[in-house]
Every structure is written in structure tokens, then in C-alpha cells.
């Protein structure tokens, strides 16, 4: 596992971004963000806590009530489009920073994450002039119509697995709708959100419209979720933390949308295009080191092809390159931190203790200071095993057999999650039946993990509340107002009119 990482430079230094300016935390505290591939400190970042959250919320409220609310929808769209262009112009630098801060392969940062960021800002740049209400016919002399208005000040808490892309998913629709934002990036990966703040400045957004406050979940995140000045909380992360966010927001009846965990079933029937399904199965578990909420971590294979398909899978996995994230040939990079590494290794041990067959992988690679895990495949997995029910968030694949479509649906639905799923078959009747039967927010047929900005994304069951992307995101970040206008003579009926 050779390294192309350059010699360690002086760590990058970042401040909070509040009211259009970069400022130190009120406490003066900072925290370190290490490079997962080397263990060396990559950045030193100002650490926000409650006092900084208060300042950011006040700045966002002032901007919402001031210049931002007075700006035309057309001009909001122009600003978002200008930001998308600036991101595209700086994409190479942002991709490298994302890889150094997160550990993901540079090929993914460059060709998947950054194009997705640009796409989201471009797509939502077109929405401000198209956020419309309706006229509704009712009996009587009444003209009735609805308006979609911005929610107000939005608190947004994003995860570490797709730092800049998740910032785009949250910021772009919120700003398109006319909201202001206080964004807390994950403490593990704060760098690209703060680089984005520089481009927000350059694009010309009014002061206070976007505020970015890196810090820890227990302090900055908790203060944001429970803040009485926040009108909506949008969170992406684990189901466990999502429940805490919802509980904190409930005290103020703050609107909440949650994009949480997943345990996606990838269902392969014997009549499928097996070469395409094999490629998608490997991509589905290796992409982003398996640190992905819609990772295809459960592979359900029709029994008649179970062993042959599993052998093919093992052969392909052997060719996957684990190594230096800055090497363009790397397919699996470094695990984000020690906590996540320990979690992955724990589940690998748990799978073996439960009686699943470890077919390949299962080891931590210790040839460098970074955190690397081999892609791992378990067969002979039962639906009741922890590795088949619980989200691992690593390159660990559970392979389960099924006998018929109803059996596959039952296994697919046997977890607490319902974020995404896939079905592979040439029989479209069966494909549609399975996609209807599986309780998941997204079901792919003969493809895997496609995610254009136009399509809604979110989960059933404990995979979350609400939807991101597409028109659904516009609905999440607006309130619906009904207006009734009476016309013509109106006779009194409650209080007798005076003669």
C-alpha cells in the first residue's frame, strides 16, 4: 500500500463564519481535524458552542427579516447559480481538501461528490421563481389561494461521510426558498464547509444569510437543535442521534426533517443481468468505504445462483484496491476516525461469533499510520444476525439467500430501516411487485445508488422523516399559507346588523 501523500505541511487554520465574517469562537477554543490516511493534523478549527450558536442565530434572524426577505426570487436564483459556478471553478481544490479531511478516494471526491455539489446548487438555482401557490374553488363568494413562504431560520446539521455534498443538499433548497441558515458541519470533517463559506462571501450573499459553526454535537449541535430562535432543524446522520435531535426540537415544536440510517437490501434474481448486478454489488458496498446511508450492505441472492454469484463477488472484491486516498487508482480509502474503525471491526467479530462465514477480508490493514479496512464478505448470514440488521457504516457485506419474491420482500423488510433498496431482474412484473412490496423511500430497478437532484430522497420507518432533493425539498423548507378573500355583499348572521 504505497503512499503518494505529500510531507505534512502546517495545519490549515479555520474560524467560524458568522454574519458574513470569519471570527474566533467566543471561548477561544479550537479542535483538530486529522487526515484519516496519515493520522497527522490536517486542520485546526475554531470550536463553536452555545454562545456562538446564539450569535449565529441572531445574525440569521436579522438577515431573514432584513435584506434577504426583500430580495427578489430572481436575484436569489442568480446568487445560487453564481455560487454553483464558483464551486465548479474551485472543484479540484475542494475535492483534494475533501479527501484529506474525510479519507475518501480522490476519484470519488472529484468525479462524484463535487459534480453532485455543483448539480444541486444549479438545480435549486432554478427554483426561486417557481415556488407557487394555488387557487382553490370553494362555495360562496370567496376567492381562495395559497402561498408558499420560507420557514425562517433553519438549523442544519450534516454528517462526515459526504461533507460538502450534504451541505449542498441542505443549503441549496433552504436558500432557494428564502430561508437563512445556521449550518453545523460534522466535527470530523469541517474543512470544506468553511471553504464553501469563502465562496458564499465571494458570490455576494448578504451578511448573515449563511452562518457556519463547526463544533461538537454535544455542545454546538445540541444548542442548535434546542434553540428557540430556530424555525426548522434539518439533520442527516445516525438514527440514534436523529432521535435526540427530534426530542430536543420538540420542546419548541420546531419543525424537523431527518435523513437517518439504512440497511439497504440489494435483491438479485437468477434472471438478472448478472455481470451488471455483480459490478453494482461491489460498488454498493465499497463506495465511500461503505460509509454511506444507502450502502448496499445486504445482498439477497436467489438460492439457485447463490454460491456462483457469491464466488463471482469474491473474485471481484479481490481486485478492489485499498490505499492512499490521493492515489487515483484507489477504490477504498481511509476510515474517518478511530471510533468508526472500532465499530466496523466489532461487527466483523460479531458476525463470526454469530456463525456467519467470513469469505474474504475482515482485517485492518496496519502498514501505515492511517485507518484502512479490507472489504469484507459474509455468507451464510441469517436475517436475525446483527450484521444483517444493524447499520455498520463500513465495507462489510452480508450475503443472504432467498427462495422466491415474497421471501425476498420479507427479508428486505426485516430491519428497522427503510431508506433504499434495489431489485435486479429482467421480469418487469416481478420488479414492480418487489419494488411495491419493499418498504423503502427509494427502490432502484436494475441500477444502484443513482441520485439526481430532481428526485426526492428519504426513508421509511427509522430511516427518517421528510424528504430531500427535488420538489419535496422545496416543500420541506416552506410553510403553506391559506388566504381567503370575500367579495360582494356580506350579510351578518352571528350578530344582528344594525338597521
Characterise the protein shown here.
With 499 residues, the chain is of the alpha/beta class. It has two domains: 269 residues, Aldehyde Dehydrogenase, Chain A, domain 1; 181 residues, Aldehyde Dehydrogenase, Chain A, domain 2, CATH 3.40.309.10. It contains 16 helices and 24 strands. It has a seven-stranded mixed beta sheet with strand order 14-17-18-13-12-20-21, with helices on both faces. Strands 9-8-7-10-11-23 form a six-stranded mixed beta sheet, sandwiched between helices. It has a three-stranded mixed beta sheet with strand order 1-5-4, with no helix packed on it. Strand 15 and strand 16 form a beta hairpin. The longest helix is centred in the first third of the chain and has 20 residues. The mean pLDDT is 95.
What composes the largest sheet? 7 strands, mixed
**Helix coverage percent of residues?**
25-40%
CATH superfamily of the largest domain: Aldehyde Dehydrogenase, Chain A, domain 1
The strand order across the widest sheet is 14-17-18-13-12-20-21
Termini gap: 95 Å
CATH architecture assignment name of the largest domain: 3-Layer(aba) Sandwich
CATH names the topology of the largest domain as Aldehyde Dehydrogenase, Chain A, domain 1
* CATH class term of the largest domain: Alpha Beta
Radius of gyration: 24 Å
- Oligomeric state of the chains present here: single chain
Please state the overall shape, judged from the principal axes of the Cα atoms: globular
- The counted number of beta strands is 24
Structural class, please?
alpha/beta
SS strand fraction: 15-25%
What count of structural domains?
2
Mean pLDDT across all amino acids:
95
What is the overall number of helices?
16
